[in-house]
Amino acid sequence: GASTPPSPSTHVPSTQLEVQRWLLQKGLPGTAAQSGALLHSTQTLLTTPLRIESLAASPDGRRIVLEASMANDIIWLFDVERGPALSRLSFQPGDAESPSFSSAGRSVIYATSLPAALVSTAMDGSGQSRTLIASGTEYWESSSSKQGMVAYTEVRAGTREDVFLLLPDGTRRALAETAFSEREPQFSPDGRWVALTSDESD
I need a surface site. Which of 44, 59, 60, 121 has the fewest CB within 10 A? Predict the structure, then answer.
């Protein structure tokens, strides 16, 4: 069957979203907190019957994109200032997973299962989506640079998870393609470096 990604570092308790408020006020990406772990610096922003699987904050900290479970995993947008309503972003059949904002916050990138693809949805109110890459495999986490590049995790037969770079002209190249599992790419603010995780030392 299809591979299941491990719980991301931004996993949050079912039905409750807590974000470090001081980070949002400074316009920096928020982080999830386990319930009760940071009572002095967190604020409950949303309570929902959906199970929140992962999340990412926009660069200005004003919006949060969520992966939440119903019959399938769906991508939702939450406005921190307006709250508490959620706006649905993904409408593809199957699951939509691992959302992240572009470096400028103008779009949200996420992975779909049917078809297996990496998709970008505009945040200009049009709701227009476009497929960035689709090659019949699985995709997980992604990160965008201010130069328009996208680093992403791809699940491949033989090498498990690898990290690739999608260039603005649509071509791609491998950043980490080994027998080990490489995941969770993250661009540096200047777009010159990519950090990632690997199980090579396990």
Answer: 44
